[in-house]
Amino acid sequence: MDLIISLIVLLTFGRGISGATFALLNKCDYTVWPGILANAGSSKLDSTGFELGSGGSRTLQAPPNWSGRFWGRTGCTFDPNTGQGSCTTGDCGSNQVECNGGGQKPPATLAEFTVGSGTQDFYDVSLVDGYNLPLIIDPSGGSSNCLSVGCVTDLNRQCPNELRFGNGSACNSACGALGSDEYCCRGAYGSPNTCKPSSYSEMFKAACPRAYSYAYDDATSTFTCTSADYTITFCPSSTSQKAATNTPPTTTTSTTNSSGTESGEVPMETNSSWLPIFSTGDSSKTLSSCTLLILTLTSFLFFFLLNS
Ligand SMILES: *[C@@H]1O[C@H](CO)[C@@H](O)[C@H](O)[C@H]1NC(C)=O
Ligand SMILES: *[C@@H]1O[C@H](CO)[C@@H](O)[C@H](O)[C@H]1NC(C)=O
Ligand SMILES: *[C@@H]1O[C@H](CO)[C@@H](O)[C@H](O)[C@H]1NC(C)=O
Ligand SMILES: *[C@@H]1O[C@H](CO)[C@@H](O)[C@H](O)[C@H]1NC(C)=O
């Protein structure tokens, strides 16, 4: 009986602080194999990769302070007997359906998150690493300026020849295809002041106004919402009229700040990497030490009651 009470206490405390629920939804008319990578210091979610048939969905729970990314792998074949295989786009190099800590091979459209802890979540869709399929993020149940963001457009159809990946199943970023410091925001171009949008990134930005089109595209690409849950939809176009009309009509967002964020809210810690890095609390450590404390207290209580 006491054990049960202890367990209830533990569960109640453990769930007291919520993180975010992620629902992955596949509206593509083909199978997508989502990949999930937790950033350093964040625990892995229930799955790091799985198969999601056309029309399918799956939800995953992330703890407070979790940060990481989601993307869709396409054209995967996994041997039904050994489970081994790979994907045409977004492959994570694990040779399995689970990515097990592997990140996406570019080009791939990314949905990136830093979950708060009763505080703001940060989220964005990034094409800095290229594009492989349309993807939007829809927040729900959150407070403040919670916009749907991402890329409804099929950029594979508009991809310039020099950026085309494979048979047209994905579109490289200019950095990925051409590799110069200027496109990659490296070397002399390694700061927001020197790395400017290119004609390629502007093409991405015009197609997907609320997505990162190059490394220093923060001002119109990072969004915040407090205590929300998120739906990540692959190929949203069929029912995404709302999101589509929400997106700013302008095609010159690189020089304007017409989009959803207030400039004061935009974290500017982006460094050499294509991945915007936000403050990353060590959530797993904090969580587990909290759990340990509760466990210790409840076992003391249990011990005490047993002996009395
Ligand atoms: C590209 O090739 C893959 C197999 O390699 C195939 O599944 C896919 O349908 C092709 N895509 C196009 C647009 O031809
Ligand atoms: C990025 O960080 C590295 C070290 O972590 C530093 O050497 C480099 O100057 C930074 N680049 C920018 C653009 O801040
Ligand atoms: C855009 O940003 C500039 C400088 O950051 C600011 O002065 C201006 O008021 C902003 N415009 C809008 C529409 O937010
Ligand atoms: C989340 O991070 C913040 C800031 O680092 C910290 O104060 C808070 O205790 C963390 N919450 C959890 C549940 O780990």
From TrEMBL:
Record-annotated membrane-spanning stretches: 286-306
Membrane is among the record's keywords: yes
Family from the record: Belongs to the thaumatin family.
Signal peptide positions on this chain: 1-19
A Pfam family it matches: Thaumatin
Cystine pairings recorded for this chain: C28-C235, C76-C87, C92-C99, C146-C225, C151-C208, C159-C171, C175-C184, C185-C195
Protein name: Uncharacterized protein
Swiss-Prot/TrEMBL keywords: Disulfide bond, Membrane, Signal, Transmembrane, Transmembrane helix
Stored PANTHER family: OS03G0233200 PROTEIN
SMART domains per record: THN
Superkingdom per UniProt: Eukaryota
Biased composition (Low complexity): 245-265
Natural source organism: Quercus lobata
Keyword presence, Oxidoreductase: no
Disordered: region residues: 239-268
